[in-house]
Each structure stands twice: as C-alpha cells, then as structure tokens.
Amino acid sequence: MNSITFYQRFEMDILSQKKTITIRDASEKDFVPHSIVDVSTYEDGRWFCQLRIVSVTPISFSELTDVHAQQENMTLEELKQVISDIYPETPDLYVIAFELVK
Ligand SMILES: CC(=O)Nc1ccn([C@@H]2O[C@H](CO)[C@@H](O)[C@H]2O)c(=O)n1
C-alpha cells in the first residue's frame, strides 16, 4: 500500500497538520510504518501531499476517545458520526497515525 485517499474536506487539516490520524477499516490496515504514501482526494484523485506512516493500531469503535478526536481535529461526537457514516456496523477499525512529508 503506497497511496491513500481522503475526502477533500480534510485536505486543509492534513496540510496544516491539525489532523494527524485517520481511522480506517481492515481493507486499509496494511500500511507499513515508516513508509511514505502518496495522498490524493477521494472525489477526483487530485494528488496533494505525501505522508509518512507512523503506526497502525487496531481499535474498536467503542474505544474511541477525546484523544483520537483531537488528533482528527474534531469533537468525539463528530468523529463518531463521521465513522458511523463511512463504516456503518464496522466494530473493528485501525488508527493510522501519520506525519506530513515536507
Ligand atoms: C474511501 C474512504 O473510505 N475514504 C476515507 C475514509 C476516512 N476518511 C477520514 O478518516 C477519518 C476517520 O475515518 C475521518 O477524518 C474520515 O473522514 C477519509 O478522509 N476518507
């Protein structure tokens, strides 16, 4: 896995380093820590940066905390809503931590 997409609405948060994690399902759990991935928008495939994968950590929906929400630049309520919309009925998730490659 050497690329990832994000919804366009998160682009500025990623580029300003306010967003430092993403939470995905098992289909995106195979990113290798320390590897560099190309990042583009989900909507139109426009490349906008590279990220270095820091870690991939399993988590269940019920274990999400304010710390995760802060790393997503959201409230916990917002984060839970976003994840429920994208991954309805997916209890097993993965926290992918990343840093911006400059
Ligand atoms: C195709 C596909 O699944 N794309 C996704 C999936 C998730 N996310 C974001 O990751 C965080 C936690 O899920 C939230 O900020 C989500 O909006 C995203 O931008 N794009």
From TrEMBL:
Q: Which Pfam families match?
A: ASCH
Q: Which domain of life is it from?
A: Bacteria
The entry's keywords: Hydrolase
- What is the active site of this protein? 19 (proton acceptor), 22 (nucleophile), 72 (proton donor)
Q: State the GO CC annotations.
A: cytosol
Q: What's the EC number here?
A: 3.5.1.135
Which reaction is catalysed here? N(4)-acetyl-2'-deoxycytidine + H2O = 2'-deoxycytidine + acetate + H(+); N(4)-acetylcytosine + H2O = cytosine + acetate + H(+); N(4)-acetylcytidine + H2O = cytidine + acetate + H(+)
Indicate the segments forming the ASCH domain, all copies: 4-102
What's a single GO MF annotation on this record?
hydrolase activity, acting on carbon-nitrogen (but not peptide) bonds, in linear amidines
Q: Which InterPro entries match?
A: AC4CH, ASCH_domain, PUA-like_sf
> Belongs to which family?
Belongs to the N(4)-acetylcytidine amidohydrolase family.
**What exactly does this protein do?**
Catalyzes the hydrolysis of N(4)-acetylcytidine (ac4C).
Which NCBIfam families does the entry link to? PRK04980.1
Identification of the protein by name: N(4)-acetylcytidine amidohydrolase
Q: Which organism is it from?
A: Psychrosphaera ytuae
